[in-house]
Every structure is written in C-alpha cells, then in structure tokens.
C-alpha cells in the first residue's frame, strides 16, 4: 500500500534557504498512525494533522537531498523546460528510491520513490513489501498527468490552487492508496476518463 503522495520543491527557491524544501501538496492514505500509536491517541485532530505535515516535510527533505546527490553525480546541467515540453522534462527527470528507517518519520520502515522534474519532486511513500516497479510506473503516470494537465512547469504555477484536480487524479490512478495492475484496455479507458475530467 502507498502511505502518501507528495509534490514538493527539490531546488533552491527564492523564498527558501538552500537546504529547505517546501511541500506543495500532500495526501496520506491508510490508517492514521496517530490513532494507532498508543502515545498519540490523546492528540486532537489538529495536532494529528500537524504531525502529518511534519512527516511530509521530513520525507521532502530526504528526497531533496537524494535529488541533489543524483544531479551532482550525473553532472548534467538542469535545463528549464517551457510549457509544452512536459514530456521531455519527464523523460530527463532524475529518479530513485530512498529507504526511510522505522521511526524516521513513519513508525515502520518505508520506501520513498521519487522523480525530480526540474524544481519539483514527486514522491510516493510505499510500504516495503510493495512492488516497486509497479509503484514507479504509477508515479510516472501521476507525474505525467500533473505536468501535462496542470501545467506545473510554467512560471507562477499554482499547485496549491489545483489540489482538487490532483485529488481527482489520485482517486482514479491510486484509489485509497492501492497500486493498480492495469491491462492495456483498462489503462486506455482510464486515460480517457482522466483526460475528460482534466479538460473541464
């Protein structure tokens, strides 16, 4: 099962210091660890939400660090793509997996799959027994739809204002945090459904 999906910054942004990452969108799936953990049962809903925000920030920082290392190791220059070149930007994206130790930030060990597309990071946090190839395909598909339909690479892209569209994407491509095995016909019908929704 996928525990969360994040969109965050992976490059220095003018409002942030060099080592910081800003979470632009987060969606958690599955059981709320705050309800399950004995010591956190007394927390109010607002305190649980703040705990989730902190977990997302920890993951974003670790992924940002991994993206930086990957880009330094590859030696490739980061070339800004313009709107309309989303497919090319996705093709040239850095990708990888970060192992999240138990307790940092989730109570169990997790795997964070990431794609670094220019200044944005797209991350899926999965339970360790998940099929990582299937998760990577799902992450690439989600990222492609976000880039193409929500035009996230353009200047002044307002990811926060488009969260309802990202929610709709997730409900179709990652229902309740479950990875889907898609045959060709079902994948095509899902593509049409998503394209029709995003065109509204």
Features of the shown structure:
AP-5_subunit_s1, Beta-Lactamase, AP-5 complex subunit sigma-1, single chain, 200 residues, alpha+beta, 6 helices, globular, 43% helix
Structure in words:
A hairpin with a 2-residue loop joins β4 and β5. A 5-stranded antiparallel β-sheet has the order 2-1-5-4-3, with helices on both faces. With 200 residues, it is α+β, with helices and mostly antiparallel strands. The model has no long low-confidence stretch (mean pLDDT 83). α4 (132-150) packs antiparallel against α5 and α5 (163-173) runs antiparallel to α6. The longest helix has 30 residues, at 45-74. It has helices at residues 33-36, 45-74, 86-91, 132-150, 163-173, 184-199; strands at residues 2-9, 23-28, 94-100, 110-117, 120-126. The protein contains 6 helices and 5 strands. The protein has one domain (2-199): Beta-Lactamase (2-Layer Sandwich).
Secondary-structure blueprint:
Elements (H helix, E strand, L loop, with lengths): L1 E8 L13 E6 L4 H4 L8 H30 L11 H6 L2 E7 L9 E8 L2 E7 L5 H19 L12 H11 L10 H16 L1
Antiparallel strand pairs: 1-2, 1-5, 3-4, 4-5
Helix pairs in contact: 4-5, 5-6
Biggest β-sheet: strands ordered side by side in the sheet = 2-1-5-4-3
Low-confidence stretches: none
Radius of gyration: 17 Å
Cα-to-Cα separation, first versus last residue: 30 Å
How many helices does DSSP assign? 6
Q: How much strand content do the residues show?
A: 15-25%
Average pLDDT score: 83
How many individual domains?
Answer: 1
Q: Helicity range of the residues? A: 40-55%
What is the makeup of the main sheet? 5 strands, antiparallel
Q: Kindly report the CATH topology.
A: Beta-Lactamase
**Which architecture per CATH?**
2-Layer Sandwich
Q: Tell me how many strands there are.
A: 5
Label the structural class.
alpha+beta
CATH class category: Alpha Beta
Oligomeric state as shown:
single chain
What is the overall silhouette?
A: globular
Task: Write the element-wise H/E pattern from the N-terminal end onward.
Answer: EEHHHEEEHHH
């Amino acid at each position: 099962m996928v525990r969360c999906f994040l969109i965050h910054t992976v490059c220095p942004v003018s409002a942030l210091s060099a080592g910081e990452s800003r979470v632009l969108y987060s969606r958690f799936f599955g059981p709320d660890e705050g309800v399950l953990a004995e010591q956190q049962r007394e927390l109010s809903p607002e305190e649980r939400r703040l705990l989730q925000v902190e977990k997302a920030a920890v993951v974003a920082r670790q992924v940002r660090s991994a993206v930086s290392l990957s880009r330094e190791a590859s030696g490739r220059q980061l070339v800004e793509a313009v709107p309309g070149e989303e497919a090319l930007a996705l093709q040239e994206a850095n990708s990888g997996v970060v192992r999240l130790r138990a307790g940092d930030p989730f109570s169990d060990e997790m795997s964070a799959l990431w794609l670094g597309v220019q200044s944005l990071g797209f991350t899926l946090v999965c339970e360790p027994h998940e099929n990582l190839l299937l998760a990577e395909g799902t992450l690439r598909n989600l990222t492609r739809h976000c880039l193409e339909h929500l035009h996230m690479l353009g200047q002044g892209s307002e990811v926060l204002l488009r969260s309802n569209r990202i929610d709709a994407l997730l409900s179709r491509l990652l229902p309740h945090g479950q990875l889907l095995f898609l045959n060709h016909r079902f994948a095509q019908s899902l593509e049409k459904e998503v394209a029709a929704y995003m065109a509204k």
